[in-house]
Each structure stands twice: as structure tokens, then as C-alpha cells.
């Protein structure tokens, strides 16, 4: 408001100065016409010319007055803008003084709804209100919590937030949480925030707490953030639907790999404790766990995890949803960090690159693996005998698990389907698939053919299938080649 009043005073002063100048010009024209009548007669005709000159000056003054009036109205209309610059509220953009109260006040003003329009479930529509950080660095002694009343169609962007040395360690720099803001108990609302965008922000958690918390929210965009020095989570999503985390860099420590302190990395880059979320084009460069998923139906694509190496006890992506995975991971780069899935049910991993003995680990909780596809990936290891897909525990229920069409160098290929051949002279041929098949002592389907040499036509039969070995026998000694195809799925 003060800025708008200052602009109006400047416009009024300019208008008065211009009016005085035009009036002086008009009076000067009158004196010039009387004092130099002979010469002026060639230009204007006496008093008539003087009047025309004054009329011209008056019209110009009115035109300028109208122009400045329009500018003044434009300046006045800015007071109704829905863009809130935090520096107008006294926030220190140098990061020296605490800006928590100032930015919180700006957010409170932005949440004053401009109309009665609502979004899903009655969430107030804020009309596209923006909190503009003006490229500053702001010190926070407490979290920026969106009001518990809820709201949608809102944005925070373009600046940096840094936690103070006494920032609470159990909070986040930005919180979309009605409960954390002192509310969240309305029986009429399942969701409190919708279409909230956090964009072009750097969040420095100062090793105290986390970066962003999204709770019971719909269609939130976390876009182009750099989140570092968190002690808990870079981004935590709890409940709600359709939070999109994209084009973002997350790391507890600032490193480009090979950090001497990697063994001591803690925290989680992204925690998804909700459904229908998407993580795409994200780099997680330091944390104990890159992405922890505890909710179903989530999509992960284009992620590069080189946080804490699996050899040091870390995990790139950990799917801790036994029996209800419902997650697809594509086009990602697991850099010395593995994917771990507990009792995977409906899991898809494809078109990804695994480096440094990174692999996929299926971890048994209740011994169930169903509807799993691990296909079309590339694995590169260090010749230490690591399997591209590893079983941690025994699986008793295995249905529709397909591990196929992967390629590996320096690691052991594992698959749920394989083909081999055995040749020689005799009456028994044993083909051992145990070095290749994923599940031990499990062959559900066998197909074989026997090609005999020397014109022989022996009788032959499949005699035994056990221990992932196939035994074919003939009724007489013969020189032959036996080709065998096996599958650990029955259909």
C-alpha cells in the first residue's frame, strides 16, 4: 500500500510540473505575438493566432493529463495484484535477519480468497496468487506453513530459503499441512491444498529437518528445486494424490560422487507415503535412501540415484509396500544403488541402466512375488559375481514373474526363462539351468527337441525335472544334441 501511495504522489507531482510548463509556454506565445506583430503576422493572424496557439497548448495539456491519469489508474490497480513480493513485507533478501514472520504474512494475504470460487471438495480457489521471492536468500527460524483453512491455485517461486541454526529438526522449510498449521480436522475436507506449485527454489535445510512436506494435497507440483543439507527428507509426500516431483536435484551433502563421507549419509531424498504420484527427471546425489515408497500406484522415470552405494548399506529406490507394490520404474540410472522391493506385486522395471553392481533385489516378507516384469535393462558390474536380480529370502508364491531380455557385463544374468543345449554320445542328457534361473528348484514348463546323428531314430523321453535341472533319456546309446527351453512360469 505504501508503495502505491508513493507512486501516486510521483505521478501528481509530474502532472503539476508539466501543467505549469505548458501554461508558461502559452503565456510566452501571447507576449511573442504582441511584441513581434510584424513578424508574427506572417505566421498567425494577430489575436486569432494567439487563441489558436492557446487552444493547441490546452489540448496538449489535456492529452498529457489524460495520459498521466491512465498511468495513475494503472499504478492504483496494482494494489489489487495477486503477486505478493516478500520484500514488500520486510523480508530480508540477504539472509541475515529472520524472514519467517514477513513471508508468513505474505502467504496469509495471498490466502485471502478473491472470490467464492472453489476447487475439489470446497478447497478455496486463490486465483493464481503468487509468493515471489525476488531472487533473494531468506533465513527461516521456523517453517513456512500454508494456512490450515486450505487453498489452491497458488505458487511460491524464485528464491532461496535457508534454515537457521535453531530451526526445529522435526519440521520442513515449506509445509503443505493443515495439521501442522493447527487445523486439519474438518470432517468436510479430505484434502486441503490443490494445484500448489513450488518452482525455481533452492532449499538449504542446514542439516536441520527437511525440505518440503506435502500432506493431504491434490495435484501439487514440485518443479525445478535444489534441496540440500536435510537431516530427514528432501521431499515427503503423505496421503493425497498426484504430487509431481520433477526436474529437481536432491542431496544431503553437496557432492558430485566419490564423497569420502558417503558411508555416513543419512536421510531420504524423496519419501512417497501416498498414491498416484510421479517422480521424473530427478537427481538424488546423496542420502541413505534415494526414494522410499510406502504407497501404491506411483510412477518413477528418468531418475539418477547415486546416493549411498548399496555396498555401503544404502538403496537407490526402496519399495516398502509388501503385497501392494503397484509401481513402475523406467528410463532410470541406478549408479551403485539398487532397487529393493518387498514382496513385489505388480512391479515393472524396464529400460534402465545399473552401474557398479547395482541390481534389483526382491526381498521376501511373506514369500509372495506376483505380476513382476524386469525387462530390457542394462547391467554393468565389477566381476564380483553379483546377480542382476537377487532374491533375499524364500518365495513360496510365484506367479507371472518375468525377468527377461536383460543384458549384463561383469554380473551374472538371471532370468525366469532360459534355453540351453547338451550334446554327446549316450542315453542320458542332463541340462543344468541353476546358474541362469532366478528362483531355485522351480521349472513350470519344459520344451525339448533331440537331434540324433548317424541316421538313428531312438525313442526318448523327459525323465526328470528337479533342482532346475532337466534330464532327457533315450532307449539306446546315440550321438545326439538335446535342445531344451524352460520357463519358471506355467503360462
Description of the structure:
InterPro entries: PbH1, Pectin_lyas_fold, Pectin_lyase_fold/virulence, QRT3-like. Keywords: Signal. This is Pectate lyase superfamily protein domain-containing protein. It comes from Leersia perrieri. Residues 1-31 form the signal peptide. By secondary structure, the protein is an alpha/beta fold. The chain folds into three domains: 2-80; 83-409, Pectate Lyase C-like, CATH 2.160.20; 417-487. It is 16% helix and 44% strand. It contains four helices and 34 strands. It has a 20-stranded parallel beta sheet that branches. It is elongated and about 125 Å long.
Q: What count of helical segments does DSSP give? A: 4
**What's the main sheet like?**
20 strands, parallel
Principal-axes shape call: elongated
- N→C terminal distance: 72 Å
Q: What fraction, in percent, of the residue positions are helical? A: 10-25%
Our estimate of the beta-strand percent is: 35-45%
The top-level CATH class of the largest domain is Mainly Beta
CATH architecture of the largest domain: 3 Solenoid
Mean pLDDT: 88
Number of strands: 34
* Rg (CA only): 36 Å
Signal peptide: 1-31
Protein name: Pectate lyase superfamily protein domain-containing protein
InterPro entries: PbH1, Pectin_lyas_fold, Pectin_lyase_fold/virulence, QRT3-like
Keywords: Signal
